[in-house]
Amino acid sequence: MKLPLFPLNTVLFPGCRLDLQIFEARYLDMIGRCMKQGVGFGVVSIVSGHEVGEAPKSVSQIGCEAQIRDWQQLPNGLLGIRVEGGRRFRVERSEVQDDLLLEADVTWLEEMPDQPLTEEHDDLAALLGALSLHPMVATLEMGGEVNGQQELACQLAYLLPFEREQKQVLLEMDDPSVRLARIQVLLEQLQGEMLA
């Protein structure tokens, strides 16, 4: 399947929301086409290169579909859109179009069946609840109650202040319980750094 890509200095996760300001012609055209056709686009993390201007030199091979949930003209005159992460995908092949838009052949990744939360996840669920009170998280209408390990893992991986490379590793994990275990390790490392 062909998918237009939006390379960013961030990692989008399934079920998570991201607000974007669109000003480059290639992305305005892409968003217009996506909205007319009722389809999404792919968000991939930039490995080397920049968000603006030329197409980046390299992007991660695993990304997340972005589905447009809302749009508005911002006070600065730019188009503002809110997207929500959908399915994860693998980039099989990509090429830069004439308008510098990156387009890729992608394969959708299979998701494992979600598992219910257990007592061992209580602390992580409480952490997500606390994060939901932060004004920036509240604006995105994220956090609070979650329905399983997948949702908890994706929201924590997205919202916590991990390095982009760490977030990318978390996105590439197929098993939500493994992702949650890795988040626990990263949290302990963060706490260690804060105490040092």
Automatic annotation (TrEMBL):
Listed InterPro entries: Lon_prtase_N, Lon_prtase_N_sf, PUA-like_sf
Q: Which SMART domains match?
A: LON
Q: Which residues form a coiled coil?
A: none
What Gene3D superfamilies would the database entry show?
LON domain-like
Cross-referenced Pfam families:
LON_substr_bdg
Reading the lineage from the top rank, the first entry is Bacteria
According to the UniProt entry, where is the signal peptide?
none
The Lon N-terminal domain covers which part of the protein?
1-191
Q: What is this protein called?
A: Lon N-terminal domain-containing protein
